[in-house]
Amino acid sequence: MLKSRDHDELIQKQLNAGEISALEYLFHQYYDDLCRYTVVFIKDIDIAENIVQDLFVYIWEHRETIEIHLSFESYLYQAARYKALNYKRDYSRKADKISILSKLNVDKVSVRADEAIELRELNVIINEAIGLLPERCQQIFRLSRSEELSYREIADVMNISISTVDNQVNTALKKIKTHVHRYYPEMYVTVFVLGLYSL
Fold this sequence. Notes:
Largest sheet: none
Strand content: under 5%
CATH superfamily of the largest domain: Winged helix-like DNA-binding domain superfamily/Winged helix DNA-binding domain
CATH topology of the largest domain: Arc Repressor Mutant, subunit A
Radius of gyration: 20 Å
Number of strands: 0
Number of helices: 9
CATH class of the largest domain: Mainly Alpha
Number of domains: 2
Distance between the termini: 44 Å
């Protein structure tokens, strides 16, 4: 037990010092098991992988201040569970919101012709915004959204770090939203994007 605790303290010191090898050790040691654990809550392996990947990105981004009071294993499992339950809560809220707005504005059987035109126009604007992204940012975003690859898969394909993938996707989302907001009110964009594009 003491040996394990000493090892965790060493890993924490290495993280605090910015040694990437410490994060790599944790990733290779726990990633697969954490994905299997998280999918129990989410029921979707791709989303579970993204949640676990985001957890490791979070650890790296907060490496200078992170403190582990029990063990890294306990911390990682508790954090993964917390993120998974938060995802389920947020997803449920978004789904309810879209459902309510859909009942208010869209016929249950078919979308009115003018709304269908608006949706097509908005789709064109979103694709235009994606086309304006820097080449690498655009490629990463398309792999994430169109090809539905996990952050880990994109990192492997492009030979870059998972944190780079995460940063590029977030950059793309911000730029796309800014572009789309020039043409459509924020609430409409939010509903459309959440419902169809998950931005």
